[in-house]
Write the structure tokens for this entry.
Amino acid sequence: MRQSICSYQAFSEIEMLTARVFRHSLLAFGLLLCSSSILLGQQPAEPNAQNNAADNALNVYKELMTPEEAISFQKTKQRDFDELLRGGKINGAEDKKLIAEGARYYLYLMTLKQDPKKPENETDLNKLRANILRDIQFSGRVSGNFQARELYLEELTKRAEDLLDNHRLVRFSAVVLLSQLDLRDEDRRKKIDRVAYTMAYVPLIKVLNDKTQPTELKIVAANGLARIGQTGNATNQLRIKIAEEIIDELIPSVNEYSWYQRSLVEALGSLGITDNLARRPIVTDALLNVMGDPKRTWEVRSTAALNIGKLPLKANADIKLITYSIVDMTRKMVQAYNANTAGYWWKRCFWNVYLAFKPANAADNTGLVKQQVNQTVVNDAYKQVIKPIATIVQPGETPKINADVTKEMDDWLKEKLPKNFRVAPVQAKPQNQQVAEGK
């Protein structure tokens, strides 16, 4: 089992690296969404006037600054701006104004189809974005004063919203930038962790809520929110606010592309919370609902299970219901696998179930075995899923799961059927018990 898990871990890491690079290629991703709709069991929406108008808007550059304005800033203010940003200290209103003008200049450059310095060349969005991130990284590095950096991040976040109704490449570049902003950089020598710029969540949430935005843009926004959840310094109250926004988008997303659904699930599981301010386990509930939804793909449902394993579950969480739901989903997954063992997605799906219980790296603090819940219950459920996992995550073609294993799972599910269907004692009984019962 150790060898098979390690083998698949290496496979998974390579696959995730490939996915990370791939999702930053807008055109390739757009083609993927179109070509894979049949494979995913999802069809694109029928064309209508509203869709056509949105598509047309995605192909139009709206230049928010003239080339003459760009050249003027470069000649008269760029050097002063660079020195101010690098020095890090803000001395008054004029410095604040210059930082705002610099943010406007660098972002609005993205809306120019041609490079103002060399009009024969198209604007290089990747280079512009890299330059912005480089300047942020060097801001205050020598002086240790980060006033200019923080103000620049604030102004960039405000101005980036102006680009979200522009050409699709401009929108994409703006959202990728927002997803990469850092308040502080990692310094391993000083044992300082990277801190994502939390307030970038505001425009990223707006992208999720905007029905006219293309799916690839929403995926990047969701990934940005996941990064903020993992490395940002958001308060618990703000994390709850972000979680509620993600849940509002996740619940009706069943007909969206599965990659987007998975991104929303990952974002929700990365926030490090389970409850809202009323102590209702809204995050746990949402992930259980996704996990038990037969209309969603197995990749989406198993990703929800994985992210339940990331949650900081409290001792009063109904771990019997949670583990029962994971085993029940796994049993149904086994049934679907036996009907079609050739599906390329099965190794990832069953690996996700493994990660719901145990981390890939023993030092990581994820997985139900690492949570402050009844470990006897967790281990009992783990024994039910590990046999099919050990078979399916092996490299190469894998056999069907034999009847002895499925009968053992069936018997366990009948014996362990929860007496109640609440995630935590403070939660009212759900209207739909079918999710908890695995129907």
Notes: Residues 1-48, 424-439 have pLDDT under 50 and may be disordered.
